[in-house]
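Homework help board

Subject: predicted structure for assignment chain

Our instructor gave us this sequence and asked us to write out the predicted structure in token form, then describe one feature. I got the tokens but I'm not sure how to describe them. Can anyone check?
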Amino acid sequence: MLLQFNGEPHSYTFFNLTQNMEGDKGQVEMKLSSDMDEEVGGNGSHNSNPKPYVAQKLGRTQKNLCLMAAATLLFFIIGYLIGFLVHRQKEVAPTCAPSVSAFQEPPVHETGAAPLMDWDDVKKLFADKISPSKFESVLSEFTSADHRAGSPGDKALAIKVITKFKTYGMDTWSDELFVKVQDPPASGYNKFVFKGTEQRPTGFLSYSATGKVNGTVLYAYYGQESDFILLRDKNINLTGRVLLVRAGKISFAEKVANAAQMNAAAVLIYPDPTDYPIGDTTELFGHVHMGSGDPYTPGFPSFNHTQYPPVKSSGLPKILAQTITAAMGTSILRQLGGQNVPQTWGGINRLGDESDLITLEVNNVLVEKEIHNVFGVIKGFVDADRYVVIGAQRDAWGPGFASSTVGTSVLVELARSISDMVKNDGFKPRRSIVFASWSAGEYGSVGATEWLEGYLTSLNMKAFSYINLDGVVGGRNGFKVAASPLMHSLIEGALKKVSTLNKAVSLFTQFGRNSRESNPLKLVSSWDKSFLTHRGFPSQEYPFFGTMLDTPDRLKSLTSGDVTRLAEIASQFAGHIALRLVHNHLLGMNLTRYNDMIRTHVYWINKRLKDVRRMQPQLLPKDLTMQWFFSASGAYDRAAHQLAEDVMNSNLDDIEMCRIINDRIMAVERNFLSPYVSPRESPFRHILLGSGPHTLKALSSHLDALKAGNPGADADLFRNQFALATWTVQSCANSLAGDIWSLALMET
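My token output:
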């Protein structure tokens, strides 16, 4: 058996090599001359008293002696060759067969049973590759004053990134996309008029509805659901109102979606000086699509020449939305009348009344842009078709130094470091690492989502984790990580191994468990459909994201000049996670982490169901029970613990078994995406971490509405949602259990 490397780090060819000999048992038979037999008797009989042959042929003695000498020499040479070949065969047999190239010893390649490099050596090698000094030139090279998505500056950066990847010896490719985005009016402007004063903000919110509305202003704090509950408790009618809300706490899109649910007519968003010390006249930029990707091709990729019916994402708002400056917002707030704000909001402001009239006009325009995603890959040596994706957005509204430049620089440095480990230091990752540079991230992860939609079937089966580097450095006094619960053990391990600015102290020691967030979708919504998600960055809340003030000087000032050192820490942390995922035989994900979340939801749904039965017994039929939900929850718990036991008892030298176990682990997150809702209608399909009526959280909310007698509550709709959510949990448990015969064994 020969293991031969075919010029690519992930390609192996196996074939049988059969030797045309039998080792030490090989024999050679020779006859020197056929005329010898003739001279001992033509009839085949032997003379009973033969004379010596030499005596009979005295005249040919010298010739015979020469023949005998030649025969002896020939036998000696043949014997020597046989002995040499047999000895050579014994030496070569245990190792790889020689390369077909003459005079070249073949490189030794891993058979797949185990990595050739110890994990401690991998960590040390990687740590030596990353240093603050290397970031100086990279940050300088990728700094750009104008690289909005689809612009010449954006394309120039894409060329720089892919050129770097090629220099590192990586296989590279790019995707060209044609996406629809909304920009501010090319001619004209957005404006509002409040109490006779006209204002023309230059910031904007992409994907806002357009047009003109008249209404009265209502101050709604941060525009969270809890804020609207307080307003409802004050018997304030929100229908047709223009809401003034602060930036922060939740995304622009969530604020607008919440306002639309309350039948508001429009939303004005401003950065309150107590939250954002960015100056009174700084404009804000963002988007309000409650989803990700191109909202005009929901669920489909925006590749060239593709034609789709005229559909829109359900996440596009139907009301107007506009950002205004702090000076504009505080000026409106001071002039409002009406009731005092709730005590919990603080301050002495008023909510607004029917006399606080305002007119808002939004004239954004829809444009099509050509954008480019670029990629490089380091191919694995065992499971090359399984990969982790590391990505960073490349575009920005303005300079975007913290939002995109630092992340792109970290992406490139990670690619350089790990490529160098493979080429020069003997590191052989078991799985592949894909490095991705996205465009149109500021419009809602458009480039990343369109790539995902274009290759969803393949990525669903083969990509097991996504590490996001957007906004990777935003301060120096904190460290936040948002991740799938499956990743928590890996993250905790990385926090303990990576040092802070104080080299003697680890991230875990300084920031502890407070650095973790369990919900990745609040930060990285585009990966809900397929990937586990991880994001880690040193940060206090960086105030200049989404502004024209996101410059190198401001980030350096906010970090006391430690941008390069913080970029090193972020690289070490992200790299540690990625290398762990591609180095180990088994993906180190803790499947039991979801057990607690499911049990918590089961408890609250059961409690609320009992409350509804007690207070509104006529709404739910008696045959609606929690039995099947309990059963599904228990099935997942058993399957998760059984797989954990399989991992503990697995033979790491069994490549196929490791692959089967890893595939079962990879399926968990994917199977928590509800198959019963459309990506067009519900882009965040995860029943535990997503949003929408299909989630377990929505079931609890629906029961609350039934209990309160809310006219919008529907008992039949709840039963349908309850059944689908139950079966989604059960299906995830079934997939986790493995083969179909394992399901029957678990049930017994």
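Reply (TA_rk): Your tokens look well-formed. For the description, you could write something like this. The mean pLDDT is 82. That's the kind of observation they're looking for.
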